[in-house]
Write a structure and sequence with these properties.
Elements (H helix, E strand, L loop, with lengths): L1 E7 L2 E8 L6 E5 L10 H7 L4 E5 L18 H14 L5 E6 L1 H12 L4 E7 L6 H4 L3 H13 L2 E2 L2 H9 L7 H8 L2 E4 L2 E4 L3 H13 L14 E4 L7 H14 L3 E4 L7 H4 L1 H18 L1
Parallel strand pairs: 3-4, 3-5, 5-6, 6-10, 10-11
Antiparallel strand pairs: 1-2, 2-4, 7-9, 8-9
Amino acid sequence: MRRSMITYKEKNVQLTEWGEGYNPTIVCLHGLGSTSLSFLEVAEKLQKNFHIIAFDAPGHGKSEPFNTSIDYEMPRLVDWLNGLLEQLNVSDFYFLTHSWGSFLALHYLVRYPEHILDTILIDGGYQTKRIWSSSLEEEMDHYEKDFDEYTFDSWNDFFLAEKENYLMWSPLKDIAVKDLGVEREGKVRWHAKGETARHIIRGMHLNETEDIYHLLPPDITLLVATLPERLSEKRWQTAETFRVKAKGKLKIVPNTTHLLHWDNPDVVVNLVLSKWLKKSEVK
């Protein structure tokens, strides 16, 4: 794993890479509130066969936030992402994305389909706000409070709280979870601020993915989580809508939460190898 800080449009962006540049490239987009190390366990197992690129999204990890809420709307984010990838000389790549990163990936696919070889969505991109949330203001307020009030007196307390959120633990999760905290004002706090979350939620409401399903390339694979069971009705309804309207492929993964790639990284790894390693070998 290699981490570096690059500058794009006068903003610092933290980049994380695995594998060698001569291998097929996978671009990973993490979810709201996460960092590029969200893909650590998966990338460690794929790095012999792929060049994997991930970065902390604006306002996350060590990447600087945007200046205005408009910059977090999907059209602006797509332009930002495409420009960043051009600066990194990345083209003809696979998309592996989670949660909010999948929403961004779908909007990118509509604008720049020629750059993408194939896409796997990890429990993201299909949770339309029309069904999954209450009101825009309520959801923005919830996330802002959740991010800003997640505060602890020590790193030990932070880790104890985090371990309660996951179905399984591993040494690599120690590294990934450490990336989610930051020391500010004598406390260990969530790395992303509530203001950033507020802007992102607003952008997701303004730019619904369901409105672009008919413009997407067919056969995008969506991995669907199954826990908690109380969300099953919404989950199946919106996943089925994606399957029909986007002509996508669904893969239901038992005993996984929204952090599917943390609960069962091997499912993601095996799917990537079976789909994309064969394609690259043919070429």
